[in-house]
User: Fold this.
Amino acid sequence: MKHTISVLVENHSGVLSRISGLFSRRGFNIESLAVGPTENPEVSRITIIADGDDHTVEQIEKQLNKLIEVIKVKSFRPQDCMARELMLLKVNATAEKRQEIMTICEITESKVIDLTVNTMTLEICDKYDHLVKFVALLEPYGIVEMVRTGTIAIQRGNETIQGK
Assistant:
């Protein structure tokens, strides 16, 4: 089962290395990792998608809380957060197939951000599961290249990770 873990950390060099090293030493696999500054420039937020059972996630949280640079750790249940990921995907697009690909773009609310004689580059921001379906729809055309940001997540409603 995939778990979304949000970690507030001090924003300075080496913190990400210590966190990823912790996962590596403990044998925990990181499925997705996204890092960026928060509204406070001295604090960064790391969103980690980890695969494992509830006991594994509990161990991850305990280990993260032991790191000095970690301010707060919180796991989100899927129904309690909104999660998104950005994907750029370049697909083979001959003149005959472009209209079919454009129809997929309309249905999935993705955008064409570049066009050449033989390729189209598409942008989509959505939930992980929707991105998997998007890729499946475009695979028959021939995916040339793909890049993803990693999932970011925020709690629903007026609760925050700081608990204020």
